[in-house]
Batch of 2 targets.
Target 1
Amino acid sequence: MSTRSDLPAWVDIGLIPALNLVIAFIMAGLVVLIIGENPIKALAILLGEPLFSLQGWCNILYYATNFIFTGLCVSVAFHAGLFNIGGEGQAYVAGLGAATPGLILGGALASILPNALSQPITLLICLIGSFIVGGLWGLFPGYLQAKRGSHIVITTIMLNFIAASLMQYMINRVYRPTGNQAVESRAINDAYIWNLREIGNLFGAKLPSTPLTPVIFIALLAAFAVWYLLWRTKLGYEIRTVGANQEAAIYAGISPPRIIMITMMISGGVAGLLAFHEVLGPQHKLLLEYVQGAGFVGIAVALMGRSHPVGIVLAALLFGLLSEGGTQLSFEIQSISKDLVVVIQGLVVLFMGALEQAFHPLLQKFFRQES
Amino acid sequence: MARVAGIFGGGVFILSHLTALNRGMTPAIELINIDKRFGAVHANNNVSIAIAAGTIHGIIGENGAGKSTLMSILFGFYQADKGECRLRGKPEKIKSSTDAIALGIGMVHQHFMLVEPFTVLENIILGAEGGALIGPALDKARAALKHLADEYELDVDPDAIVGELPVGLQQRVEILKALYKGAEVLILDEPTGVLTPAEADHLFRILKQLRDQGKTIILITHKLREIMAITDRVSVMRRGEVVAEFDTSKTNVGELAEAMVGRRVLLRVEKTRAKPGNVVLDVRHLTWRDKKNIARVDDVSFNVRKGEIVGIAGVSGNGQSELLDVITGIAKASSGEVIFKDQPVGIKDSPAELRKRGLAHVPEDRHHRGLISTFTAAESAILGYQSNPALGKGFRLNRDAVVAQSLKQMQEFDVRPADPHLKSAKFSGGNQQKIILAREIGSNPDLLIVGQPTRGVDIGAIEFIHRRLIELRDQGKAILLVSVELDEIRSLSDRILVMFAGRVMGERPPSADERELGLLMAGVGKEAA
């Protein structure tokens, strides 16, 4: 977040994150050591398994898809000076917007149109639906902040819990077919996002089993759209003005409450796209807890990516790697659970966010001497 | 015997040392060949200054001349790249303000370092609390404060909440804080910027008294008059160097000004008689109340015509800022009306709407309002005009158009460096002001509202800005000028209104007697004047 720096740009956006990452790894290694396992071996599995197989790469990209959405969600709000930590809830509730058109409208469209036409149309409506519902879930705390002065950090946290309860109720009472034991909706076959393997099969290519879908391109498109919005549109200029200096914004005739609400709508909407990806892609149904903490990872991604879309894409890939590696790690070393990755992620957040400036004075000294 | 002689000799040495100090032979402070760079900016270039003990030494220079950097080095905020600081002849390494305070250096910053919700006493002991309980420290400070108050006329109620004190008294608390910590050398950075003339006079009396008691005072300022009024010796800085040093009694304002800018300055603006046209802005019985329901703008009526500059004089804090906020749509009037170009300014009219109607506004506070320090100059140069269709169709903002427009404005207003991609914060005060002025004048307004156009701006830029404002007037635009600098008001305005306590005390021609205006500014009404 902090833009203050008199260091060369490559140090600021390259060296410092790398250094923080290395330290986070060393600390995580210590944790592994305490558990009684070999940290070098653990590191080899964590990084090696995903990086040296096609399936590993596919899975990294799958995770990255979600993290790009949630990272963008956090960063858009950052630029307006808002710390939206409700990406988790916004992505969760957006499942309603993603699933409902697929369940209701999809069948109707499929009965009057050929499949090749009804599927894309339904998917587009689902995409818009998830953006709008996620956006509304973001707009609510935005409204409370803008008009009532309730702090966005508090309200977004609370709304995460409300989202969890709401979704439990909705899926259980509304979406679950009667007689079905599992708490989930019926399969959404009329808005079906194919994964890479299924696409490969079309062309007779034998691809590994992976949840990766073409939605990764939508994520990259979203990253570009956020960049364009912030730095190439009037609205983006106003968002950044409000984030940088509210008093100057008022002087310029920009209404901070209005911008806060619009920004939170966009922020929640981008998080909502995760639901489009997850519900209609890998899961093909609305189920409980499908966000799996990606909303919180988004905070780390945005921090590490310096709230810039390019940085966010790179950070999302890194966290995708960690997630995939962590799964492999818990699989191969029984005493290490998948939670270790959460520890590493936590350490990265600690060093990137809380201790971001820890090395700053040292590096400053170093580069001053050099110049 | 030898031992006794040694002690005796030492005593003699100390004695002679003291006398030398009293005579001002060993300087209290010597800064020798100080060099400091910030990236490409050479803030201090081989600066050497010696400051005699028991004197008031002025350091004068334009903004960005390196005065504040030099003092920040002395006070331990920055480390010099090269050079040496000597205190009473002894070389010292000052690594932090803690070191500086321990060496008997105190600093009163331009922006006070006070905890507003604390009492005076609590602020005084800040950093010297003693043990876990602050009771003893408070008692000690109370006694010391009484002593200081008696000695230097520094009266402050020790139990008053600092945030509720007027700025003049807050500044006094800062001085007391430094003295309480044993300051022998007191640095004051632009101390009168926030004071009323009467408060400034009082400050000068205190400073003189402190000097007479043997304290050494360094006064940083860009106001020539203060240097002349109070200092014993003055160093002039320009572009990071000390370019001249004078005994104050042997120099004059013209010589100092010339040394500051390197050429003779026209302190008077040359202008022809105004040819006022139709009324552009008509303010009728305007009142604005704050949250405590106090009328900060109280039944104000006046108008501004085409082709004239109306100046509002007054000590800051007498409702001028609030008046500007209401006229420009930032705040909403409690009662009365503002009529701009024959149309009333309504509750719904935002600053953006008024801008479209031809009202431009150079705000008083350029750091908090006029531009955004983290934005590039080009981005700051469209603040308020971001929805202008010339800068991009529809929702888009055309980067190239923004940069091109900014560059054009920079060249036209001689902004240095003329780099639209440079961060706004990196420009000096005068150049920042030129960026804002270029933006507002560039919008071709019918009415330009200007607040403190030359606050914290160097003399060269002041001249430029003044000439631009006169030019704009001669093009038939209406200008409303608010400034706390009476000289500025008098040399630019065609009519002068004086505000006091939210009211307009009266209107005077610019030829009016300075004393008469001063009385109005002090709230002495029409009847008395």
Target 2
Amino acid sequence: MTDPFLILGVPLDADDAAIEAAYLAGLRRASPERDPAGFEALRGAYEKIRTRRDRLAYALFDQTPPTAADILAKAAPLSDPRRPKRATLTALLRGEV
Amino acid sequence: MAKKQKRPSVKALQQACSVTPESARADLDAGRFREATAGFKALLKSAPAGEDRESLRDGLAHAYAGRARQLGAKGMHKEALVMWENRAALGALPAHPDHAVCLLRLGRVAQVMPMLEDRSLKADPGSGALLLGHLAAQMLAGTAGIAEALPAEDPIRVQATVAEEALDAYCVGNDQALAQALKAIPFRSPYRDLVQILKALSRLDPAARDHRGDWTEEARSEAAKLLDRIDDDSGFARLRDAARLALLSEIELAPKLREAGPATRDLVFSLRGWPAERAVLWNELQTLGDSPQPKELLRLMFRHRRVLGETWVHERGLRLLLPKPQTGAKWWIEVGGKPLRKIDGYLLDAWESEADPDPWKVVTYWQDYADLLLAAAEHRVEPGSETALRIALVRRRAETLFQVLQRMEPDSDPESLPGTIAAELESSLEYDPDDRATYLGLIAYYLRGGKALKDARRILKRAQERWPTDKAVLTAAMDTAIAGGAFKKAATIAADILAVDPINSGVRERLVEAHLAHARKNLKDQRPDLAMRALALAEDWSRTERTRERLDLVRGLAELLAFDPQGEARLQAVAESLGKGLAARLILLLEADACGIPGARLLKQLGLTKAPTPDVVDLRAFFSRVRAHLDTGAKLPSEVGGTLKAPLKQTARLKLDQGEMESICETLRRTDLHDVRLAFAEAALKRWRGEPVFELHAFEARHHGVVPWNIPMREMLRLEQALERARDNGDSRLVHRIIEILSGPSLPFGGPPRGGFGGGFIEDEWDDEDEDEDIDDAFDDGGMAGRSIALLADMIRTLGPSGFRSMMQMPGPIGESMRAMEREIGKEALDVLINALAADLDARDLPFADPGDFNPGPSPSTRKRARAKRKRR
């Protein structure tokens, strides 16, 4: 995923406070010690859109094309994990793939 | 109708003839089961009864089993069963658990039950347990007939209820019931693998995910450990494999998911929280392949613009048109986009310009974009508004990318690259007056070189109005005061900064510098008494060894000037501490120069006139000091260079490694010590013959300030050979540098007839056509590759307009190309050009003016802007 708004999970019109809150919330899940790569991604995204100037600069100058992951995240972001249906488990136990 | 008997092919017959027990065994060992089967069958046909036949039958049984497993792994259970049955038909072989598993997969429970009584399976607890595990999994999967076929007290029947409860509890998210049910399943139960899987899956809850939707390392590793306890041939292996897939990160998952079946995907989508729409879109994305074409990705984005958002699709979609927006714009509408707006076209052009290393292009295209924004707002833009901020950012773009002002000094030409970028930055402050960094950058730029102090003060004043107590602005104020010689004011400002930020070593250093500069100024004015006072102030703030050393030096010089005998002793001590070699002489000379004291006289007074013995350690220390001096932005004073030139040349013969020699040549490139650089480059070439980097240094040093047409052809050819070697070595940076020299500030009129400048291998973007009618265009129309007006101007200055015109009568390539030019643009235009250049000459544009300087390229003439605009759609 390359879009910092999607990485932080904030809308395109998010303000400084919303972005900082999303960053801090993300830090709880991706601390530099436990998840260095996750932290880097989070930090990079935050720095790209931290301030109003940053966000405008990102809109004006960033040339990164969207990826399939960006499209997926934008169209249908991940929700909380769900327990699978019993029928799914039954099919797998039956040997289906 | 009777089926026609298929005749064995000639190839098969040949193979049958050539097969041996060893080759069949080798096929079996290598997993080539089809070949092994054919081989063993052929051998069995011709083998006599006996021990050999037993061994061949055993091999065939293994080959059937191997092939059956291969087919089973592909989900081809019916085909696998044929193999198992072939194996069983060989007779007198123990039942294989996988045969039973295969039957179970096909729901043929009745055929499995007798196998449970097979003596060999009963004798092997591992195989028996494996088969029971498969029966248990099939029992949970609802395969009919298992319960009925088993005795009532069989663990598979008895524990099925609690295993069902565990599955149900997990699926509805009742973790308490799940825990109870799992506890009720005994350790040696045929359902034990299910216990591990459900335990692993229950670790994957929302709290175990990071911001990307991936599992935390802790959750992932715990779950993976539990899943690793399940064997590959377990009846629960399919469920385990699906669970393992769900543990992968989103990036790892994508390619694996493509190979997974619907049941596995369902499990993964649920566990990872994929909404149904995401799964549908993912399927659609898969049809575009591993690396979707931008056009197809854009088509998909437009198709889903409602869920993706119109703005997002438009903004991100524009990025898919790069790197060739003109081509991309053609299919934008074809794939479902609305017509691009004018502003989109300008933005795409500006992005495209950034792929070019030419700063002028970037400046020009972003200027156009800013102009369009301004025009769209009818020139009424409120500072700080979104449009204003956009304009400000765009005006700062070239500097952000190229940091021109961080490297160059201001000059008097407002049309120069730094002049233009500085004007852009100043303009940006009209729209975004709150960007402190821009003020500070401009102040630092205007202070560099000391020629634009007024501009620095002007910007500083505006910054101080906004941030009167800001440390960075105060520091800029101190630097401005120092640059203006207002040392007392600088000291006051520094004290203010240190009062609130006592550990600010940068300011402390600058303050010491300010006092030192003051002391030097006093010494220049022959006022050692005042210098001593400034030094006393500096001493109060001095903390580092390096500043103490310099204070000692200046103090020594002040004492010398005041006829204090302590001075000579102090300076002797400093020289002694520095080893009395070249490094010591450099430090003394630099300081003497800064204080207006003749360096040669000082060295004489200290008995240091005799050249020191060349020494590697001293030489390294010397160049370290030179680099430190040059890094401050100062130049090496000519007197210092002149005094040290001779002893330095002698040190060129010292045995240093190649890297050090290269580093020395690079340092000398930043000075005017061309003879010394040449001596080092030549010494290096003696040891590393033909080494391109030293060829380049030798060339530049040898021909510094020499107009290109006076450089012998053999020298040019030698450099071209170095270029080829650098290319062979893959040293792209060096290749670029040599090309710059060969093509760069350029010869007028196309240069010599062959090799050297204008050599066919150097492409020149200036070589294209142009329709402008200004003077500059006369050059373009003449097809003059990579030429510089300044160089032409230099010829005119050297020869005078009439002498220049008389060159046109000269035989040879230069005269010929000038005549060609006259033919093309006409005598009148050429006269206008010559007179214009004769009236406005600038020595800075000489070739090799200062190799250390950034080369800003040609100026943004109307021609270039017009050309840029013509390119626009």
